[in-house]
Amino acid sequence: MNETADDVLDPLAIAERWMDDGRMVALATVVETWGSAPRPVGSHLVIDGEGNFHGSVSGGCVEGAVISEAMDVISDGEPRMLEFGVADETAWRVGLSCGGRIRVYVERVG
Amino acid sequence: MDPYLLRKLNRERAARRAVIHLTDLGDGRDRVICEGDPVAGPLGEAVAAAFRSGKSGIAEADGRTFFLNVHLPPARIVVIGAVHISQALAQMAKIAGFDIAVIDPRTAFATEERFAGIDLVADWPEDVLKGRPLDAYTALVAVTHDPKIDDVPLSQALSADCFYIGALGSRKTHARRVERLTALGHTEAEIGRISAPIGLDIGAASPAEIAVAILGDIIQHLRRRALRGTAA
């Protein structure tokens, strides 16, 4: 089978490669959505200890916040559940302009 | 997530096997479940439903909250016959996001020039399919209407429970094909799964239009498929 762009950009494959390179890795996953959410349940964002990332959990609206939480997850190893949406107080800063709500689970790999 | 689980998950996905990454959202413990692995109780029912629907989501079972991330293999199309229809179908399938391969032992048909940029194999289907077997997430399109070339992959597609099986040919050609497949041991119900005449009934006339009809038929089978029982 030909390697497609999807293989190259696949967050789970990237997570494994980063892990093999000895990098600290966190994985963020959309576990629940309400309303019009930009990325479906199951979508991944992979983050390393330096803040490099691949994939997406929204259309770019909340990735910044997820990445900064992922830094904490990488350092203490405790998984976290994050919620973003217009009802949230932080919506005006990091929210979904589409009006949807999402829950994102962030865990450390290893 | 355990590094071992991540490797297992990626290995199963690369091998085109359906797999679920299950996480207990209460304590963060997780595991990887392959299709067919026994899972008891209400969680087992949620796992089976997730494999059937392909939909990831939250499930409550035994007073705990789980997240099931379902990874089904991406749909692909295998075309038997490097004919005019296949040239159009290969281009359209790529645009629609399908992984597509074209197989034809007739080197006059299977030329790089006719199929530039397409995964093309100029060899007998039975030999090629040994290295890349058909599965439930593959559509098989047989368009040579030469029994020597089409019959083996059609038979294998029936055994592998491909989500779409289409065969080109007139009603007379297909009637003879049904006889041959019956002689190979396939039941009437199995053979009835073959789309013949191939493609949606849109009055397609040119090779490109027939390719549209076939691709539409494939998409309909993929998106409206009845929920599977436990796939083999």
Overall structural class of chain B, as computed from helix and strand content, comes to alpha/beta
User: What is the number of helices of chain B?
Assistant: 8
The general outline of chain A is globular
**Largest sheet geometry of chain A:** 5 strands, antiparallel
Helix vs. strand class of chain A: alpha+beta
Quote the beta fraction of chain A: 25-35%
Give the amount of beta strand of chain B, in percent: 15-25%
Q: What gyration radius of chain A follows from the Cα positions, in whole Å? A: 14 Å
User: Strand tally of chain B, please?
Assistant: 10
Helix content of chain B: 25-40%
Quaternary state of the chains: heterodimer
**Quick one: overall form of chain B?**
elongated
Cα(first) to Cα(last) distance of chain B is: 28 Å
Number of strands of chain A: 5
Largest sheet of chain B: 6 strands, parallel
Rounded mean pLDDT of chain A is 84
Number of domains of chain A: 1
Q: What is the C-level CATH assignment of the largest domain in chain B?
A: Alpha Beta
Helix content of chain A: 25-40%
| H-E string of chain B | HEEHEEEHEEHEHEHHEH
Pfam families (chain B): XdhC_C
Domain XdhC Rossmann (chain B): 77-218
Organism (chain B): Shinella fusca
InterPro entries (chain B): MoCofactor_Util/Proc, XdhC_Rossmann_dom
